[in-house]
Amino acid sequence: MVSLHYIFLALVAFFCSYAVAVQNVRVQGNDFVNNVTNARFQIIGVAYQPGGASGFNPGSGVDPLSNGTICLRDAALMQRLGVNAIRVYNLDPDLDHDMCASIFNAVGIYMLLDVNSPLPGQSLNRGDPGSSYNSDYLTRIFAVVENFKNYPNTLGFFGGNEVINDDPSSGIVPPYVRAVNRDLKNYIAAHVNRTIPVGYSAADVRPILADTWSYFQCAINGTTDLTRADFFGLNSYSWCGNSTFELSEYNQLVTQFSNTSVPVFFSEYGCNKVKPRIWTEVEALYGRQMTGVFSGGIVYEWTQEVNDFGLAVFNDNGTVQLRTDFDNLQIQLNKLNVTTLEAGNSSATAVIPPTCSSGLITSPNFSNKFIIPDPPQGAADLIKNGIRNPKQGKLVDIKDTKVSLPVQGSNGMVISNLAIKPLPNDASNTPNGDNTSGVSSISSSSPSATSSTTGTAPSATQSKKAAASKDSTFTWLWGFAIVACVASWVGV
């Protein structure tokens, strides 16, 4: 009877699928914070936009998060790399994203999502924002909210990306971005059962950067001002090759954002003027000089496109080969002390946003008026009653964890046993010491080849539940998961 008992449990474990969920993350002062553990959340991310902006075609029925097979492969690689977040730029809210969102959720990877797209009418027109700020545009961005609101790993929405990028746009666009923030937050408050942060991603145009941040982080009517950004992302490429904290002017950014009242992070980084990239900025970004101000960053980018920023090459025949950039990034991420990164920032809750005033703005051409446009005609009805027939996502079970698509390391050798490894409910992914391509050190030369490469299991962030060793915790969690599966089947 004992042997049958264990056989039964083994069969249950084999056939149970995975539908675990990460914990929601909230904004607390100038930090992202895990809702359950209250640990500080530092973004260790990568931009995920296969095909680039030019490849976005809603009529194709495909977007970056619509193909579960591809997402499974990429999530397995990202899990080994050690990232805990992806940024996705162009999404079709009419498509089914359940499988991809659930896969990334299972491996502890959050999603930062742009609500706009490069198509006409689906973003603010920086040359004439008033003409594009209408109910049709709001219907589009609210549809993205509807599609992704139920996924617990939806970390936040970007209400705008580099809409302000020069003097002319800085004079007319800022009030409209704040209007979009307000409309998104009002819609979320009316139709989502939790708060999802809304923020802005800025171009690193130094003459207007400080004013952009000042304009979006200040409060017009107190800390509950819905028009202010919940977080501020910066697309920065100033650290190239083996630079330094001073030469890259990272020190200037830390000084500039030192009194921020919202989380600040690199929404894109990874200069490619020196190739292959060696990612020495990682040590600075996640080191003591910056973590008191910055909340991490998002590497640009996952797929190799014509601009030559990719971590991997995706071939027309369906094969994928990692680049040396991937290996070098993995080496740098493996040096991070996640326990230190998750340590709480005691000053975060005490930060009060400045009151909006013309005195915050230094550039003569930047908008210094904080008169926010009223919602366009039809907006009130959309916010109150919701958009018509929205496509709403939900977590689904992940039954297959093994990757079926072929993947090669940067050395050309096939990566064997590639699979996702679902994490406990309260865990996000972290760097884990893996060596996916078998590279032993950062080098521009080709590493020695072996017949195949394998990797170690990814680690999870330590939480209230994680007091024992990794092995014993893993065993206990799997035992609990089996019991939960049995209970759900018999209706306990």
Report on this model:
The structure is a single chain. The protein is an alpha/beta fold and 492 residues long. Helix content is 29%, strand content 14%. The protein is built from 14 helices and 16 strands. It has helices spanning 2-15, 68-81, 98-106, 129-132, 135-148, 167-172, 174-191, 206-217, 250-256, 281-285, 324-333, 338-341, 379-385, 470-490, and strands spanning 25-28, 31-34, 40-41, 43-47, 85-88, 110-114, 154-161, 198-203, 232-236, 264-269, 294-299, 312-314, 320-322, 407-408, 429-430, 459-460. An eight-stranded parallel beta barrel has the order 4-5-6-7-8-9-10-11, surrounded by four helices. The chain is globular, with a radius of gyration of 23 Å.
In short:
It is built from 14 helices and 16 strands.
Helix and strand topology:
Layout: H1 2-15, E1 25-28, E2 31-34, E3 40-41, E4 43-47, H2 68-81, E5 85-88, H3 98-106, E6 110-114, H4 129-132, H5 135-148, E7 154-161, H6 167-172, H7 174-191, E8 198-203, H8 206-217, E9 232-236, H9 250-256, E10 264-269, H10 281-285, E11 294-299, E12 312-314, E13 320-322, H11 324-333, H12 338-341, H13 379-385, E14 407-408, E15 429-430, E16 459-460, H14 470-490
Parallel strand pairs: 4-5, 4-11, 5-6, 6-7, 7-8, 8-9, 9-10, 10-11, 13-14
Antiparallel strand pairs: 1-2, 2-3, 12-13, 15-16
